[in-house]
């Protein structure tokens, strides 16, 4: 078998063994550089150092196993960075191959296209796929392949700074450039949509927005949760939605929570959203946070030591924007001081960006954040109510008051329905234990903490 045939067979085999997004992100652009008869080593080329490390750490076994299935003379696999590896951008015209270095040097403050509102800086090549977002990524890819037909609407939800805007905009950019006939894409935030509706009503020009929003192939609305409760806007959106949907036009929406959890969202809209595909983006795990930092470091040619990157990845957990914010500050600091950063300063920067210690959150604010999250009255948590559906929210509130505010058990019991301190201890222990086993619960708590810190 020829070398490239061998590699094609291996990739075909691996594609069946790992998730599609991971395959596309990490292996699609790999190549077999050489197979040495002398020692049976197969040398696999990846487009950059990070991909090299990632593939080595995660897929070595699979690669070796698969290679040996097709060619028993292979004894081991080694990895190398091959700069002329095919670029991951599928939409570049064939005659214009861009090397990775060149791609990395593209300015990041590219202009937003006034026709689509898309910012070209959001691409899939800079989007890391991991366990927290691979479903969302896969759903978006499916939509891109089959615009208007496969999942309609596609509804992506997840906490602040977890990549919703990046993913939606990347989808818009990809669709714009990959549909040769020219698909018209329009990206707006729900705020922008609302402003347009209000202005149209004021100026008596409803026809304008009808034309603007119904005359597209793909409508992307970011942060749709803000539409809840704005009756006229909801109505207009409902009609827009139907008009697009009936014509097989694609609708992609994002929100900070699931449709069922958006308060005051009209029932008919909720059911429309639920009629499509709903996927969530969860909090990134350590490995993924590390991957995001390392990619940034590589892409921007930053020098920063490995330990510092690992430290940041371990500390900043809730928000990718904050992860980037910390990195930027640290880089600035080390360049300015021209020295490695010491842990104390690093902690300071992390606290500054994530605001975990600087704020004095009151118990009242924290309790309200929990109540708001579950959409129940604050009083249900603070009075002696024994309603069954209050049990978990109250336990979570107890846990948060302990974990975030460090209040004493009796004090917490006093605040939450005059419970005995042993009840509080029991609740805190239960939640601490459950978090480690129940991912859904741990995501909920992260989201609530997010709210607590934002109050
Ligand atoms: P959201 O819209 O969910 O609040 P954003 O899309 O604005 O979050 O993401 C916040 C920042 O984190 C952006 O700079 C974005 O590029 C970056 N980011 C988010 N997810 C990823 C990812 N999976 N890989 C790389 N960067 C990401
Ligand atoms: Mg966003």
Describe this structure in words.
With 455 residues, this protein is α/β, with parallel strands linked by helices. The protein has four domains: 3-81, 2-Layer Sandwich (GMP Synthetase, Chain A, domain 3), CATH 3.30.300; 124-281, P-loop containing nucleotide triphosphate hydrolases (Rossmann fold); 286-354, Helicase, Ruva Protein, domain 3, CATH 1.10.8; 363-454, DnaA protein, C-terminal DNA-binding domain (Chromosomal Replication Initiator Protein Dnaa, Chain: A, Orthogonal Bundle), CATH 1.10.1750. It has helices spanning 3-15, 20-27, 49-70, 100-104, 134-145, 164-178, 190-202, 206-214, 231-246, 267-274, 286-299, 306-315, 320-337, 343-354, 363-374, 378-382, 391-403, 409-415, 421-437, 439-454, and strands spanning 31-35, 41-46, 76-81, 154-158, 185-189, 218-222, 250-255, 277-281. The strands form two sheets. It has a five-stranded parallel β-sheet, sandwiched between helices. The longest helix is centred in the first third of the chain and has 22 residues, at 49-70. Magnesium ion is lined by residues 164-165, 222-223.
